[in-house]
Every structure is written in structure tokens, then in C-alpha cells.
């Protein structure tokens, strides 16, 4: 369980994280989404005890991270996969992490196996690793203490499509076994595929949060027909909001309602899609367009 309550971080007059609150429950994967500079990393650093909040608090398993005994046994953290010492081999990095947690060589072998790094790869220096291999190693470090909670900053970064699929399977499996996962990403379609819920932030503030399917539903229905004008009039007569969209209409109603209105109006439908166009990505862009601090 992760509980974030009114978490705020100010740097002088600048507010990097502005009064955010959300929960990640056991058995779920929550995607933390936002454009560059939105405040995701700053918030995750506060959750994992690396930065003190200006106000508010973040609890992991009911306590501030720093108050957890042997936090690595409870919370697996990967904030910067490139931070590993380039001169050490992957196995050395993992062995050090294992020693720190009172674990042994078997645990190192198990963690390597879990993230799909071969013996040969584990023997190579991290400086020569691809970004995808560093992500796998970072994840192995996060997983080695058999934690119940994972906090991962951009874990899919640098992974190829197969790697992304593998990561998704691993995280879903982790959550299915009762684990709690918070991951940040700008790969929106990836979050859409793996997360049960999302928390979207822009300029440090939460702009939307909730179940992925509900957020997409909230985008309404996109419809294209042989006579959009007649269909729009029919829907508006029922008190439904209709907005012209590229080549069609966006309608705040269910697909069934739109289909019935088309039938009543005798209008032939050409296309009818639930959700904001492009799913979560479109919603994300709409919600954060005004909030992007840097070019994404
Ligand atoms: N130590 C600091 N001092 C001043 N400003 C900071 C500091 N750390 C972060 N910031 C600012 O806070 C804002 C949020 O940064 P943060 O790295 O948390 O964003 P992010 O959502 O993780 O972005 P990205 O996806 O680019 O990593 C940025 O404008 C950043 O410049």
C-alpha cells in the first residue's frame, strides 16, 4: 500500500509538486503520468525517502519510507537505471545490493533469472550495457529483497517491444500475487496496457485520476455518420453535449444512446468508438497541453 497525502515540494518560490493525494492498493498497478517536468520524479523521490516533502506526507505500508526497517525488503525502488556504477558488472551490482539486505548468491541468481539477464550478460561491465539491459538490472535490484511494493520511474524506458511486453507481464504477475506497483511513464499506451488506474499530473498538480477504463469512457463517444448535423440535433434534443471533432462528433453519451439517436434520425453511422480518440493518450494530451512545462 502506498498512501500519498497532500504531498507538496517547493524549491524557493517554485512548486514542483503541489498538494497531490492518491493511494495505490495491494494487487494493483497505478501509472503515474505527466509531461516532462510535471513533478513525477520529485514525488517519487519523496515517497522513497530521498527528498523531504515541504508539506504533506507519503506512506509506504503505513509508514514513511525512512521509518521502514530494511526498506529494501519491503519496497523495491528504481528511480534512475543509469545510476549504477559503470565499472561494476551486473552481478557485482546485484551482489552488493544482496549483501546490504543480508541476502546471498542464490538470491542474486534468482533475481537475474527473473529479469532475463543471462550469466554472460551479468558478467559484463554495466558501462557497456544497453539502456534496456540497465532497466532489467535496475529491476533486479528492486526485486531482490522480495518486496511487496515497487516504485519504478520510467521502467519501460529503452526497452524494445518484446521487453515492454515482458515488463508488463512481470508487473501484472507481481500485482496478481498481491503486490503494489507505482510506475511513472510517458509511454501512455504502455501504461494503458499495464495499469489498473492512473494518476495524471501537470505542473505538479493532479489533473485526472481514476480507473483507466473509466477515464477513457469519460472521453465520451466519437461518431462519424452520413449526416452529422441531423445526428447532432437529435442528440442535443435529448440534452446530450455534442462537440464537433475532426471528421465527426464527440458526444458525452454511451455508444448505445448514440446508436439509438441515429436510428431515430434515420442517419447511417460510419464509425462509432467509445472513449476519447486515441484512448488515454488523447485524454492525456488534452489534460496536460496547458500544463506542459518543457517540450515533451
Ligand atoms: N532540486 C531542484 N531544484 C529546483 N527545481 C527542481 C529541483 N528538482 C526538480 N526541480 C524542478 O521541478 C520540476 C519537476 O521535475 P521532475 O523531475 O520531478 O519532473 P518529471 O515529471 O519527473 O519530469 P521528467 O519526465 O522530465 O523526468 C521541474 O521543473 C524541475 O526543473
Automatic annotation (TrEMBL):
Keyword Nucleotide-binding: yes
Domain ABC transporter, residue spans: 2-228
Pfam families, per database record: ABC_tran
InterPro entries xref list: AAA+_ATPase, ABC_transporter-like_ATP-bd, ABC_transporter-like_CS, P-loop_NTPase
TM helices/strands, residue ranges: none
Gene Ontology molecular functions: ATP binding; ATP hydrolysis activity
Database matches in Gene3D superfamilies: P-loop containing nucleotide triphosphate hydrolases
Keywords: ATP-binding, Nucleotide-binding, Transport
Keyword Transport among UniProt keywords: yes
PROSITE patterns the UniProt entry points to: ABC_TRANSPORTER_1 (PS00211), ABC_TRANSPORTER_2 (PS50893)
Family classification: Belongs to the ABC transporter superfamily.
Protein name in UniProt: ABC-2 type transport system ATP-binding protein
Source species of the chain: Janibacter alkaliphilus
Phylogenetic placement of the source organism: Bacteria, Bacillati, Actinomycetota, Actinomycetes, Micrococcales
Amino acid at each position: 500500500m502506498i498512501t500519498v497525502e497532500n504531498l507538496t515540494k517547493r524549491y524557493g518560490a517554485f512548486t514542483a509538486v503541489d498538494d497531490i493525494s492518491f493511494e495505490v492498493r495491494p494487487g494493483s498497478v497505478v501509472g503515474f503520468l505527466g509531461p516532462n517536468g510535471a513533478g513525477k520524479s520529485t514525488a517519487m523521490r519523496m515517497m522513497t525517502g530521498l527528498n523531504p516533502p515541504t508539506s504533506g506526507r507519503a506512506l509506504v505500508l503505513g509508514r514513511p519510507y525512512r521509518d521502514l526497517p530494511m526498506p529494501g525488503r519491503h519496497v523495491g525502488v528504481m528511480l534512475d537505471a543509469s545510476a549504477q556504477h559503470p565499472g561494476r558488472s551486473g552481478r557485482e551490482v546485484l551482489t552488493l545490493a544482496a549483501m546490504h539486505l543480508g541476502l546471498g548468491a542464490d538470491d542474486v541468481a534468482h533475481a537475474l533469472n527473473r529479469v532475463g539477464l543471462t550469466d554472460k550478460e551479468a558478467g559484463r561491465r554495466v558501462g557497456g550495457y544497453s539502456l534496456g539491459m540497465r532497466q532489467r538490472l535496475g529491476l533486479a535490484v528492486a526485486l531482490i529483497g522480495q518486496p511487496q511494493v515497487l516504485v519504478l520511474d520510467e521502467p519501460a524506458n529503452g526497452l524494445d517491444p518484446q521487453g515492454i511486453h515482458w515488463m508488463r507481464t512481470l508487473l501484472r504477475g507481481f500485482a496478481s500475487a498481491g503486490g503494489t506497483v507505482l510506475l511513472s511513464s510517458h509511454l501512455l499506451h504502455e501504461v494503458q496496457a499495464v495499469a489498473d488506474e492512473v494518476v495524471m499530473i501537470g505542473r505538479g498538480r493532479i489533473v485526472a485520476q481514476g480507473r483507466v477504463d473509466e477515464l477513457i469512457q469519460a472521453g465520451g463517444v466519437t461518431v462519424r455518420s452520413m449526416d452529422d448535423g441531423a445526428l447532432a440535433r437529435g442528440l442535443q434534443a435529448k440534452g446530450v453535449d455534442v462537440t464537433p471533432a475532426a471528421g465527426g462528433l464527440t458526444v458525452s453519451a454511451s455508444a448505445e444512446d448514440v446508436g439509438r439517436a441515429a436510428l431515430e434520425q434515420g442517419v447511417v453511422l460510419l464509425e462509432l468508438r467509445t472513449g476519447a480518440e486515441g484512448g488515454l493518450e488523447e485524454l492525456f494530451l488534452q489534460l496536460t497541453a496547458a500544463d506542459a512545462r518543457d517540450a515533451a
